[in-house]
Every structure is written in structure tokens, then in C-alpha cells.
Design a protein that fits this description.
By secondary structure, this protein is an alpha/beta fold. It has a domain of 75 residues. It is built from twelve helices and twelve strands. It has an eight-stranded mixed sheet, sandwiched between helices. The chain has a four-stranded antiparallel sheet with strand order 2-1-4-5. It is globular, with a radius of gyration of 21 Å.
Length: 377
Amino acid sequence: MTSRTPPRTAAGTPGAPEDADGAGSGARTVLDIRGLRTHFRTEDSVVRAVDGVDLRVRRGRTLCVVGESGCGKSAMARSVLQLVDPPGRVVDGRVLLHPADGGEPVDLAALKPTGRELRSVRGRDVAMVFQEPMSSLSLVHTVGDQVGEALRVHTGISRRQARERAVDLLERVGVPGAERVVDSYPFQLSGGLCQRVMIAMALSCGPRVLIADEPTTALDVTTQAQILDLFADLRRESGTGILFITHDMGVVAEIADEVAVMYLGTVVEQGPVDAIFHDPQHPYTRALLEAVPRFGADREGPLPTIRGTIPDPGHHPSGCVFRTRCPEAVDGLCDTTVPPVTVPGPGRRVRCLLREGPAAAPPESGSTDREEAADAG
């Protein structure tokens, strides 16, 4: 998709307490990510795939995390539910899930990855739609069994009841012939139908947070538009907070309320979607937008690109992580100083030494015990 004009951000949830961060959303925070760090230890280095990420997912709103392949988007998404495969490990930070009744939040990052408490959260309170549904679904179990599994685990309903509920969910996500599809196997379905099945699985227990990791990758344009409409309907009808991972700025323009731009494991800019598209502050954000093909552009000339390549994630450059590719980099400044987070406007944050604004309040950090143990191990 190549649309460059984003829709206006939706109004917040009526009656919900407003977050005091200047965003003006009026929407309750359901998932609060603070200082999240995920490292992968290799033979010769420690890859900082997620390097101090701070994000908020709000009720009834969509936060899009965008960046090039390899920037840490998927690692961050998996870290929320501690689904990072070895040798990866969440080493620091907090992932606070706020209960619907306004009680004390639960820190998912502090729970045992294989423990009962975290397993009870997965699929029920926080659900995830993974990349490439054909490889995420089991080929030897029917669609109905897979959609109904979370229901049986979390609610204890019978197999027959789970099947009936699976049919309802498939119909809800627009699967034609749901009564037939529920008894089919994934290899008998198209990629678009398999993605709808994945979404039905994620919605089965009515989660308050839905993490969608590149859910439109490899889908044709028509199917992609239908899937995006489905997410928009879900947000409006159920008030689900959506954390949407993508590398496609056109998708961001279509679905986002708020945007976080990631580069080399770090969020370099975040803010309301209109502000990000119409007044990008970070050079990397501008480069991403300039690289989007435009209708009516010169077809004979070269496509715009971002110069250089992403540095080795195991050996971050000193100073600003984007300086090796930045057209505005200043020697003696950008290569020696780590940019602080500043607030150039309401609800906005940017990590750039060349942008002015008051310093952002530091988020609460998680315990460093996990980080020290991981680096020592």
C-alpha cells in the first residue's frame, strides 16, 4: 500500500481516565512497556535486539511499531509475552498489564516464562497474531481444534461447545463457509483465510491487548485491505488495544492512531500518526517516509532509498545509533553522545541531538538483576 495521507486519529474511549503524558488521547493504558531490553548472547558478542524500549498501548487504539527488517520490532513483540527463543532473553524492563478493574498492574516481565501465571495471561488477556500463518498453524489439527484450544484451556468448556464457538469466531472475522472451514486443515486454505483463522484464534478469549506481528505480510493488496478493516472493526467494537508491528508505512497510515519508529533496537521517535507523517522530527523517520513510492512519481528515475546498511546489532555504533546513515550527523557530537529523549510537542518523543525540546521524564526501570545474570551467563 502506498497511501501517504493518514486518517485523523480516533477519539479516546469515553469515560476512561486520561493518561498524563500529554498525548491527549483520553484513553486508558492497558499495556505499559518500560525500559524493555532483550539480549541474544552469541559466541563473540551480545546482540541487543531490544535496547530500552518504552511504549504504551491504550484501550481502543492502535499503536503501530514501524522500522526496517532487523530493527527489533518482532523481538520486542515476542518479549511482551516472553516468547523469545534461546539464546534470546528478556534481561531488563517492565511490561505492566493493567487490569480492567483498575487494580494493581501485573509485571509480565517478572513472571516465569513457563509458569502457570504467565500461561494464564497468554491468549486470555494478551493475544498474538504471528507472521506467516501457514508456518504458525499446525497442519495436522483442524481449524476448529486450533481456534477452540484457548477456549478449552482458559474457560473449561467442552469440545462441542468450543467447536460451536469456533464457528462463531470464524464468521466474525469474515471466513466464508465457516461450518465447512472449521473442520478443514490449514493446508487446504489460502494464505488470506489462514490469516483470518489466526486472528480468530487470537480473539477467542476476548483479549484486552492484541499483538499483531506483520499480519499482512505476503498477502495480496485486496486481502491486506480486508485484514486491516478487520482490525479497525475489532478496535471499535470491543475496545481492544492493538500493538501492530509492520515495516509498511502505507499500512501505518491506514490503521495507526499512534506510531513508534524503531531503529537498531531503539525507539527513535513516537507520537500521534498525523504528527509523524506531517511533521517527522527524526532523520530516520523522514528517510522512511521519503522511501515510500508515490503515485505519479518519475518512473524512469531510481527509487528513493535509505543510504547505507543497518550496523551489526552485536556492535552498536558509539553515540547515536543512526549516525552512520544520517545525512545530518555532526562529527564530534553524534558519534560521542547518546541522544536523550526529548518532547518536541504534546504526545511526542524523539531521540536526536539536533532536535530541541524539554527532556522526557525517565520511565521506571525494571530490576537489573536479570540483566546482570544474563550478561554473566
